[in-house]
Design brief:
The chain is built from eight helices and seven strands. By secondary structure, it is of the alpha/beta class. The strands form two sheets. The chain has a five-stranded parallel beta sheet. A two-stranded antiparallel sheet has the order 2-3.
Length: 163
């Protein structure tokens, strides 16, 4: 067993936890929502200092992994953004391109799968429903409250399963 495989995991969400999505919320306020433009704008997200600092702090004792509701087609942009912010290297878990289930289901499914072989020290996520479900399932949760909340994003996460 390698040293990293013995370390507990610190699991971080991206949007509104590490990345500030405020500049792209306008694409969700349209009807129909412009998901292509919303995700295409992600590389221009500003980093959220509180989340970035917590990821670096967590990396001292944990292996950092990323768990996002972004679709798989956004992987290259997401990896480039993480690297540009100097975030700890770690596996990125994304939803399938056609997966429209709410984030609270997709993320909890992945957390449970990860927990089968590794200790999960903490989940850091901004989505209230994801946090509630993860806490109920026995995970330690830090709710990221450092980004401006978006009603449109919350509705999209829960009802449309897009992020």
């Amino acid at each position: 067993m390698t040293e990293s495989s013995r370390r507990p995991l610190a699991v971080f969400d991206l949007d509104n936890t590490l990345a500030d999505t405020a500049h792209r919320q306008r694409f969700l306020e349209r009807r129909p929502r412009d998901w292509d433009a919303f995700f295409a704008a992600a590389p221009r997200d500003a980093p959220l200092a509180e989340g970035i600092a917590l990821a670096h702090e967590s990396a001292r004792e944990c292996e950092v992994v990323y768990l996002t509701g972004r679709p798989e087609r956004c992987r290259r942009d997401t990896l480039d953004w993480l690297a540009a912010q100097g975030l700890p290297e770690g596996k990125v878990h994304m939803r399938g391109n056609a997966d429209r289930r709410p984030a609270r289901y997709t993320k909890l499914e992945i957390l449970r799968r990860l927990a089968r072989t590794r200790e999960i020290r903490v989940l850091v996520d901004d989505d209230e429903l994801v946090c509630e479900d993860a806490r109920r399932a026995g995970f330690t949760v830090v709710r990221a409250r450092w980004a401006a909340p978006s009603g449109e994003l919350r509705a999209a996460q829960e009802r449309e399963g897009r992020t």
